[in-house]
Design goal:
Blueprint lengths: L3 H23 L9 H15 L15 H33 L3 H13 L5 H15 L4 H24 L9 H7 L10 H17 L3 H10 L4 E3 L1 H4 L24 E5 L4 H11 L4 H5 L2 E2 L5 E2 L7 E4 L9 H14 L10 E9 L5 E4 L15 E8 L8 E7 L9 E4 L6 E5 L2 E5 L13 E9 L17 E2 L7 E3 L2 E3 L11 H6 L8 E3 L2 E3 L3 E3 L17 E2 L2
Helix pairs in contact: 1-2, 2-3, 3-4, 4-5, 5-6, 6-8, 8-9
Length: 541
């Protein structure tokens, strides 16, 4: 917020200019006892001078006297100026987030809040996230403080937009009549829900189930992912089996994980391609601090036609064939795969991925699932980033599934699962010692049939793009890609594929069973057994 003397000087200059413009247009200055036409003219000139569109509804110039009009106009102007100042700091904060400069991003979000914006909870949400993922001490406490302040602010805006001073609901038409000055858009139910979600996830991950119950009620949630999911245990290393053949029970699970099957050289190559500082993330404008997706398009992927004999074979093709062989031990139908679609993520410890079903083009046009999806964990450990959660729930099921398993990230580990089941990434709980650490994973989905979508004229990444030739940079529109050039094989494709070997004995990792995937919000409640609850009644992350 501007210093009082700066605000006074700015308003004094603004008001003097406004009165001069009024006199120039009306022929005389406004009277001390203003008439309606004078208020109308003051209001129009005020918005023109402010550079703002004159809103429908009540005038900014309110009151029976010129002094009252001046006071109401000043409030409206200062709110506008505060919002503009906050927007400048917010833009700078977002730019620093893109550069992965958390300290300066935090500093600018704090300045945005201090500017006194009319919707401060928006900046607090962004600030609270950075405090959680980027501070190595005290981040959880500071995050909770900001989220509680944001919730109070959003609640207040939402309530004031629909209630009078007595708390009675009033109609939008009446609200326009009684408003004293044009207000910022009130918090929507969705915005209040967003703040509630963030706060509830934090409390659930800390195991504060009694504290979170009333907030879940307020959000209208009746069911939630269970304590066993949010407050997950760290895996017991004794659960690792040395011989998958002796673990007949593993064959019945929808997921399968192994260690030690990724050749060391291949693992190192994948780390170079997708390491947290690689050009892959920069050229796709992937924000690994806050959005954990491309700032241009969100989700993007590449697809390889496995049967195209004229297509260039790259280092990724060799890795894909190796993963296919490994996963075939649990999913023999992978022999039918004709396409491999892949994407990657680089997430801070506390970042998760909501529960979802893998589908072509994110389900646009109807859900179609791959045969199997695989996760290759490249960076991270069992205490960096949350586990992958795989359930038995499928689209069309008549009730919530209560069977689930957790697979924890570990460099070189491969996890394969039935792509038709509900799954996600649980946010990592607690703080990491290093704020720069990232959970880096490469996902490969195998399809019997899927459409490869060429780059469009803008050159933006997107769903199921073809991999550019490694012979040189790929340019289209204003975009220029070079990351793929490192995928060129050093020797012949035949030699690289021939050398692929899967160990005869796989070091299988037993997924950690989840006693209950879902549970009712109320202690005395129960899960529905005859019907599937509505999506927005089920709390996740």
């Amino acid at each position: 917020m501007a210093a009082p003397e700066d605000s006074e000087v700015r308003w004094s200059s603004f008001w003097s200019k406004l009165l001069a413009t009024f006199e120039e247009e009306a022929g005389d200055p406004p009277d001390d006892d203003v008439e309606d036409w004078e208020k109308d003219l003051l209001d129009r000139l005020f918005h023109e001078q402010l550079g703002a569109k004159q809103p429908r509804g009540p005038l900014a110039a309110r009151g029976k006297t010129l002094a009252a009009c001046q006071a109401s106009l000043r409030r409206a102007a200062e709110r506008r100026w505060n919002d503009e100042r906050a927007a400048q700091f917010a833009a700078e904060a977002k730019a620093k987030e893109s550069e992965r400069n958390a300290p300066l991003a935090i500093e600018n979000w704090e300045k945005a809040i201090a500017s006194g914006p009319s919707r401060p909870w928006e900046a607090r949400l962004a600030l609270s996230w950075l405090q959680l993922v980027a501070l190595e001490e005290g981040g959880e406490q500071l995050c909770e403080q900001q989220l509680r302040l944001a919730l109070d602010e959003a609640r207040g805006q939402a309530k004031s937009s629909s209630c009078n001073k007595s708390g009675e609901t009033v109609s939008p038409k009446k609200r326009r009549k009684v408003a004293s000055t044009p207000a910022a858009p009130p918090a929507s139910k969705r915005e209040v829900q967003e703040v509630l979600t963030r706060l509830c996830v934090l409390l659930c991950q800390q195991g504060r189930d009694d504290d979170v119950r009333s907030l879940l009620r307020e959000g209208g949630w009746e069911y939630r992912l269970s304590r066993s999911v949010f407050h997950y245990p760290y895996p017991d290393p004794k659960t690792t089996l040395q011989d998958v053949a002796s673990a007949s029970n593993l064959a019945k699970l929808p997921c399968y994980a192994v260690d030690g099957t990724l050749p060391e050289a291949m693992c190192e190559e994948l780390k170079q391609i997708f390491g947290r500082d690689s050009t892959f993330w920069k050229e796709h404008r992937y924000n690994s601090l806050s959005r954990c997706s491309s700032e241009d398009v969100g989700y993007f992927s590449y697809t390889h036609d496995l049967n195209d004999t004229n297509r260039e074979i790259t280092k990724l093709d060799v890795a894909i064939r190796h993963i296919q062989k490994v996963a075939s031990a649990h999913f023999p139908e992978l022999e039918e795969a004709k396409y491999a679609e892949w994407w990657a993520h680089c997430r801070p410890h506390a970042s998760g991925h909501q529960m979802h079903y893998d589908s072509d083009n994110e389900g646009i046009g109807g859900a179609r699932h791959p045969i199997c999806s695989c996760v290759v964990y490249l960076e991270g450990g069992e205490d960096l980033g949350g586990p992958t959660l795989v359930t038995t729930q499928r689209l069309g099921d008549s009730r919530l599934s209560n069977q689930g398993w957790l697979v924890f990230p570990r460099a070189g580990r491969i996890c394969a699962f039935d792509a038709s089941v509900l799954h996600g990434v649980v946010p990592g709980r607690g703080l990491k010692r290093s704020s720069e650490a990232r959970r880096v994973s490469w996902m490969v989905a195998f399809w019997r049939d899927v459409r490869i979508r060429p780059f469009e004229e803008d050159g933006l990444p997107g769903s199921s793009r073809p991999l550019p030739s490694t012979s040189g940079p790929f340019e289209m529109g204003k975009r220029r890609y070079t990351w793929h050039q490192q995928l060129r094989l050093d020797g012949s494709p035949e030699d690289a594929l021939r050398k692929l070997e899967v160990p005869a004995t796989l070091e299988a990792v037993v997924p950690v069973p989840v006693p209950n995937v879902w549970e009712p919000v109320e202690k005395e409640g129960s899960l529905p057994t005859e019907s599937m609850p509505e999506y927005d009644k089920c709390f996740q992350f």
